[in-house]
nitric oxide dioxygenase
Amino acid sequence: MFEARHTMDAPTTASADNGTSGGNGGGGWFTPRKEPAPSGEEQGAGDGRRLAAMRPVGRPATGQQAPGQGTPEQERISPAVEAAPPSPQAAPTHREVAPTGTRPREAVPTETRPYQTPQPEARRREPEPAYNPHEAVRPQSGPAHPGHGSPQPVAGQEPRVPVQRPAPESVPAPAPAPEASPDAVLIRRTMAEVGPVADKVTSYFYALLFVRHPDLRSLFPAAMDTQRDRLLKALLTAAEHIDNTPVLVEYLQNLGRGHRKYGTRPEHYPAVGECLIGSLSRYASAVWDHEMEAAWVRAYTTISQVMIDAAAADELRAPAWWYAEVVSHDLRTPDIAVLTVRPDQPYPFLAGQYTSLETPWWPRVWRHYSFASAPRSDGLLSFHVKAVPAGWVSNALVHRARPGDILRLGPPAGSMTVDHSTDSGLLCLGGGTGIAPIKALVEDVAEHGERRPVEVFYGARTDHDLYDIDTMLRLQQSHPWLAVRPVVDQQAHLQLPDVVREYGPWNEYDAYLSGPPGMIRSGVDALMDIGIPSDRIRHDSLEELVAAGD
Ligand SMILES: NC(=O)C1=CN([C@@H]2O[C@H](COP(=O)(O)OP(=O)(O)OC[C@H]3O[C@@H](n4cnc5c(N)ncnc54)[C@H](O)[C@@H]3O)[C@@H](O)[C@H]2O)C=CC1
């Protein structure tokens, strides 16, 4: 039910309303409690009191940004506890389970308003601060060439670069916070404590949630496995950045909007908060005290309030989800398909954004895919999908979906979009199916009639994996401002990002990266290394990328 779309640009630290002001102090409306256990018997009066206290404040929706725009989600496959409504095929039944839809939101008792939602601010994505060395890739670059032939190398042979795998991204590491608020300090102390046992915290959290609130189980997928840590990760990510109001608000608004498709309602939030704190208090017992609990209550109240408000505002102007009929299915390689779908109602989005997608075969299991085209006059949407081992959704989309099948789409999200107020060039790195949003960006620039230079480096493992090279080369032929350079690992002597160093200078360019996490990491490193400032580098969230694609 909570979707963690941790973006690069998300959470750093700042301060504004740090939760320490207002009438929502530590002992105010939340009474510290005993350590909970996943037992129904523990739902005593104390719990009921706590639950009421944690209920977020309902507030009229005003001043929200357009759906899906400028959101930080920018994440490909992200942590998201996928609590979703039913599959299209089971729509009548599931509609009952997921009653939010487009109904007016339900009123929630107003108690305290500990937090004022600031207006979202425009921002750019920033890279994650620290990356590990990359996986080995031996790409090769050369001039654009027609068809699937091997590109010409652009550099001499070099030894293969020794590499390490990126470290797993579990609970986000605390961001540096020179002036952290007292609440932020307490929250980070908790996270440092629970980080090493994140798996246990997650299991315990869901045990609590489903034992105490069995009605919420139907909002989650039947099999929780790959998605089980998403809710907790989302909450911890948000809590960790509780000081950075503008970024946090944007992140949470996006999260709140995205949760409409799961059937999340305001009254679900206290239950989640209660179980979150129950889990944290158990696994951070060595440092847990009243102050720490109060800090978490304030943080969670803020988090849930922003999400609820954003969902309510979104409800006034957009459906919780769209049905979309598959109108074409083009198997480009044995494991990559290009799908085109027709949404049942207009679907506004921006080139460079992505959506969440659910197939009829795996109800409530959602995966993120970028739009592979800029918005079209016929309203059709296209996606590039690679079937990955054990990937339920990707395999269904590649090997099972056929024209006539009905999918569901969540709202658009992501801020890897073109800034049309400048005429900077675009330096685009697309790896594998990561070329999809890059193609959309190129089309977007073309449609705006701009003459800004666009340089696309398209990486693939083999020349056969350059499944969309013909399209890209056709675009290049039509647009003199566009250069497309395939980079094939198989014949390569340099990694894709290193190839980019061979060209340039890039000081007048904004950079866009899309592809596997290792490519994003090394790409951001390389681009910053050659002097492109981080605020000119955009990409989807690494967390989502790590979890994506299945
Ligand atoms: N389908 C979609 O709409 C989108 C997918 N993505 C992500 O793109 C990825 C695509 O996967 P595949 O097609 O299997 O790509 P892949 O794993 O075959 O990699 C494609 C290319 O990226 C480069 N690359 C890979 N790892 C690298 C590293 N560590 N350092 C430098 N360069 C590296 C190489 O040139 C490689 O050939 C997935 O992770 C997916 O989540 C991202 C955006 C959109």
About this structure: The first strand starts at residue 322 and ends at 333.
